[in-house]
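Q: Convert this sequence to structure tokens.
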Amino acid sequence: MRLILRSVVLFLVVLLGLVGSSSSLLSQVVSSNATVKEVEFAAEDNVFLKGTYGVPENGQAKHPAIIFVHERGGDRKQWAPFMGVFYQQGYAVLAYDVRGQGESTSNYRVPQDDLQYRLDLVKDIGGALKFLMAQSEIDPQRIGIAGIGFSANTVWASMGIYPELKAAVAVSIRFSHLQPVYPFKFAPRRVLFMTDPIDKNGAQFFAEQTDDPKQVNVYIAELNFDYGMELLQEARATQDMFAWFKRFLLSF
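A:
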């Protein structure tokens, strides 16, 4: 019950933060039609991943797209409260279960070596990106990505590996002694780091290794939630996330 209530609160905060009133937000969500389907695609090493893929029905020939990566121990449903709002703004969305979690467990066993697992997770993003670029309704020049907690680190790394990704939001990224040393030289860029004061040092550490444009936003939660998806219950945080994607994916 607590999880359901928190999801409802998150959904309302996202929408209220974007449109300002409950009456207008309901009309926008209802009018935001999208074709949504469950999909399966292969990561770069042929691990099968399960996902949810949606495209807004707004008459656009080509859509910008966002890849959503969930927290460790969760699944793609964590991003469900945001999908309708992204569809309303014209984005296609691909949310998937990372390897070894959720429904993506058919041909992958999580290794005991946590460093290896973190390196493998980057291959998932490569597969998600390839899937999107193969869809005729997607604009391959306007693909972004967002990740939370454990996956924020993976998202950050992906911005230095895949030039096809044009913008990223890393929520609650954390410095850890388990952070992998990637076996290549790369420079992530166009990353918005969203954090609370506790994880601020970790966000700044990664920002120092990130090329411009970049930004670190620190939020003091009004709802007493301050990590990961809970941080996004802050209206200002959700507004900042949408503004970052708009800057690089919609504003030409």
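The first strand starts at residue 34 and ends at 42.
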